[in-house]
């Protein structure tokens, strides 16, 4: 029967030393390989400049209307001195410089980030204004999706609500009128499309959005006429009469009311108010 021979005590330290040497050699080999594959640009050799110097450089670029260079300077400031006072001011100026460069995506991203990080900052009203303006510049015509218009409207409405006395609030109010008119115009376009295809239920839904949500736009008179027209086409005479009466009561001098009155006459009926009709309740301030 063979017996296991244990290594002598004098050999154990030597083996541990040899193992440690092998491990160190392996680690050094890994480091050498990693060093060979590292690019020089992965290391920042120079310490960053003082934040004030970078900030003033960005301001100088803005004053010289070199807006893309300004963006580069302020991004450097944000990279090296995040959350500093200079970086906070530089973020707003980045949004401004990007807007001046027609880089509206960067304007939107920067303004949104600023508002997320500093919602109560003294420049938050200006960031909201820039956000709305940037979205507004990306709004397509009414035949296409109006997500940008809705985003612009949300930014301008928030500006007016939170900062009603801001120097930018009046500009935002003007934008709100234009954007709401744009959104109502798209609803009218789609409603007329369905009406021409005799998909009356779908067309009524679109015209209803206009009279419910966009009464203060220039499309309200046509929307009431189109509802009158569609109700008649569907044989809903009393609904058509009530709608025409609302049109005449609120817009007696409108050409759309004259058209509605002639249309009703051609059908042998006249406008007739129905106080229980949904439109009557709506224009009285109910429902």
Structural account:
The structure is a single chain. This protein has 287 residues and is an all-alpha fold. 70% of the residues lie in helices and 0% in strands. The protein has helices at 12-37, 51-63, 67-80, 85-100, 104-117, 124-136, 147-162, 169-196, 200-213, 220-233, 237-250, 255-266, 278-283. Helix 3 runs antiparallel to helix 4, helix 8 (169-196) packs antiparallel against helix 9 and helix 10 (220-233) packs parallel to helix 12. The longest helix has 28 residues, at 169-196. The protein is elongated and about 85 Å long. The termini are far apart. The model is unreliable at 1-45 (pLDDT under 50).
Roughly what percent helix?
A: 55-70%
Distance between the termini: 102 Å
Number of helices: 13
The chain-level structural class is: mainly alpha
Mean of residue pLDDT values: 87
SSE sequence, one letter per element = HHHHHHHHHHHHH
Number of strands: 0
| Shape field | elongated
Radius of gyration: 34 Å
Tell me the β content. under 5%
Major β-sheet annotation: none
Residue stretches low in confidence (pLDDT < 50, at least 5 long) are 1-45
Concise description?
By secondary structure, the chain is mainly alpha-helical.
Mind sketching the topology for me?
Blueprint: H1 12-37, H2 51-63, H3 67-80, H4 85-100, H5 104-117, H6 124-136, H7 147-162, H8 169-196, H9 200-213, H10 220-233, H11 237-250, H12 255-266, H13 278-283
Helix pairs in contact: 2-3, 2-4, 3-4, 4-5, 4-6, 5-6, 6-7, 6-8, 7-8, 8-9, 9-10, 10-11, 10-12, 11-12
